[in-house]
Amino acid sequence: MPIERLVFGGMPAVVASSAMLDVLERARRAAHASIAVLITGETGSGKEIVARAIHHYSLRCSRPWVDINCAALPEQLMESEIFGHEKGAFSGADTAKAGLFELAHTGTLFLDEVAELDPRMQVKLLRVLDGVPYFRLGAQKKIQVDARVIAATNQDLDRAVGTGRFRSDLYHRLGEFEIRVPPLRERPDDIIPLAEYFLAHHSDQAHFSGAAKAALRQYPWPGNIRELRNAVVNAVISAREYEIGPGDLPARLHRGGLRAVPTSGLRLDGREREAILTALDRTEGHHQRAADLLGISRRTLTRKLKLYREQQADPADPHREISLAP
Q1: Strands 84-85 and 97-98
Q2: Residue 1's closest CA among 194, 275, 251, 234?
Q3: Helix (H) or strand (E) holding 72
Q4: Would you say 183 and 139 are in contact if contact means Cβ atoms under 8 Å apart?
Q5: pLDDT confidence of 199, banded at 50, 70, 90?
Q6: Residues 146 and 106 sit within 8 Å (Cβ to Cβ)
Q7: At what angle do helices 298-310 and 287-294 cross, to 10 degrees?
Q8: Is residue 61 within 8 Å of 42, Cβ to Cβ?
Q9: N or C: which end of the chain has fewer CB within 10 A?
């Protein structure tokens, strides 16, 4: 089985599956068109790698690459971060600061978790994408930028538009070309090459036994590549021999994958809910540790838990309660 080992913007990509090779081919084609690209897929599936591949293959490859996780900053700081501010624009603004759009001028701006933008920011972003000049906070002179925007989300934006959480015009503006990154469970041919890549970074002598490889392949990897990397690191630490066996892998890999969680009456993806509930089980309900395990922000986790509760079809559902406690 041929294995592609690529590097995009300093980030390595190990690809063996036909599914991911197709994704990279779509990224290569999108790179040559001056359009916005929306990358969708589960948390940890490799969306940033695809975004960097688009920049790498584009004519802007030698120009700036700027990225931001839209869920990582408080809403009150997001506007300043993206559009910049002048000195004295607000309390604590002791100096002027260029926004990310300015820093990405002639290059690429990557907006990760774009669905987390609040409605006011969605309006401002849409205007800039339409080529309208904008003000820094506190400024009197407008700025015109030329930055290609690539956005990514792990949410169903069609559904977010339907519930009013995301603007339909922004969705269609961002999604001029859409690329879906399949989860790791849909590309099992990538599991062992990725695991061996992570293993080589922690040990130059360790190797997986055949049984360990089988265990790695049969597990559904709800946390995708991040969870696989963590599992390999844990195995290296646990192993007493250079050969890593099934017993050195995390215990959850031996329990037949994730336990089934009833999902009737839910409109959100059942696998996502299952992964979140399992992460909460493993961390005894601690939201921050569960978010870290899933590779998402605590804000995203809290929002999803509220949505799950709101969208249960029957308030008297006998299935387990979802705790909203911190």
Answers
A1: antiparallel
A2: 194
A3: none
A4: no
A5: very high
A6: yes
A7: 100
A8: no
A9: N
Beta carbons of 240 and 206 less than 8 angstroms apart? no
d(CA 289, CA 323): 14
> What is the Cα–Cα distance from 262 to 277, expressed in whole angstroms?
11
CATH number, position 43: 3.40.50.300
Pairing of strands 142-143, 134-135: antiparallel
d(CA 280, CA 244): 28
How does residue 270 score in pLDDT terms, banded at 50, 70 and 90?
A: low
* Domain count of the fold of the chain: 3
Neighbours of 7 (CB within 10 A): 11
CA distance 203 to 144: 50
Give yes or no: residues 197 and 171 share one domain: no
Query: Which domain does 324 fall in, by range?
Result: 261-326
Query: Is 144 within 8 Å of 90 (Cβ atoms)?
Result: no
Give me the amino acid identity at 65: W
